[in-house]
Amino acid sequence: MKKTLLLFFLLFFLKINAQISDTLVLKNNDIIIGEIKTMNKGVLQIETDYSKEDFKLEWKHVKNISSDRIYIINLSNGDLLNGKIIKIETPGKCEITNIETQTKSIIDLADIVRIKPVDESFWGRLDASFDAGIKLTKAQSLQQLTINVNLGYTAKKWYGTATYKQIQSIQDDSEPIRRIDTDLSYIHLLPKDYFIPLSVVTLKNTEQDIDLRIVSKAGYGKYLIHNNKKYWGVASGLSFNHERFTGVTEANKSLELFLGSDLNLYDIGDFSIQSKVTAYPSLTESKRIRTDFSVDTKYDLPLDFFIKLSFIYNYDNKPKEGASKDDYVFQTTFGWKLD
Questions:
Q1: Residue span of the signal peptide, if any (predicted)?
Q2: CA-only gyration radius of the chain, Å
């Protein structure tokens, strides 16, 4: 009986130690042992047995790292590695063994911009967020509701996102205002920080008399800057615009060129700022150009809650006759994210 109990406790101890395979040494010489969940945008998330919540710490505070597991590792120069991370004596550096080529490389920790475990489950690769805002005023009985939903999935060489945004406003002595934006995107990652973006974007907007606009895009892009403080990606390609206007039976179709920019700043404490702009000069409609612009400022709160300030602007120099050329939205929302 004693031997059986001893064997049980031995196996239990070995199981625990087998699960705890990742070690971090911080610049203040603190040591954290656990399971690395992810490192992205300069923040590392690690699960430990001695904490109910995962630890989140800035990547720049890590001095050494080691793990027996296999990771997808993105470098700031655009290289994509699939391998193990081995600790070396030099602070601020590590050795990465690429399991595909069996080559070993000494890498500066500052050059690593993303780490994802290869054996991560579907739910571990998924991230989501939801935020909403309500505005009520006694004057003219204004009622406004804002809802934003974001989903994302990250694989080895690609990631996908889906977004849904709705604004509905009701006010005395005026027509109801309704705006719905959706975006379904697929980004295939290539060496040297190049990428192929594919997306389908829709818009319903009573302000511009847009009953439904569907824009399908395909292009080629590159991250000009990609590090643990910010990234900046640019892309261009072709888009097909299929739109129906309110009160018009025949749909309008056009082929467009698109030029886009996406800038994300996240090494500013609990704040992060993302700005996107895309221009659509038409190839089939003379002198028509459309522009979409957005900027989101997010402040992270405890327990994965956040406050977000958003500004959205749309411009079309040749809208439907009688409709507005532009529309803008400024909103404040409160939300929660799943990491």
A1: 1-18
A2: 24
Rounded distance, CA 154 to CA 313, Å? 28
How far apart CA 9 and CA 259 sit, in angstroms, is: 62
In the structure encoding, which two tokens stand for residue 260, read together?
A: 């886009």
pLDDT tens readout for residues 115-126: 888 766 677 778
Whose structure tokens read 């505005």?
A: 135
DSSP strands (E only) in 118-193: 126-137, 142-154, 158-170, 177-189
Rounded Cα distance between 244 and 214, Å, is 9
Residue type for position 159: Y
Rounded to whole angstroms, the Cα distance separating 167 from 177 reads 8
Backbone angles phi, psi at 11, to 5 degrees: -65, -40
| Tens digit of each residue's pLDDT (9 = 90 or more) over 15-41 | 444 455 788 999 999 999 888 888 888
**Domains defined for the chain, CATH in brackets:** 2-119 (no CATH), 124-338 (2.40.160.40)
The reply to whether the predicted model has a pTM over 0.90 is no
Distance of CA 238 to the CA centre of its chain: 23
Output DSSP code: residue 191.
G
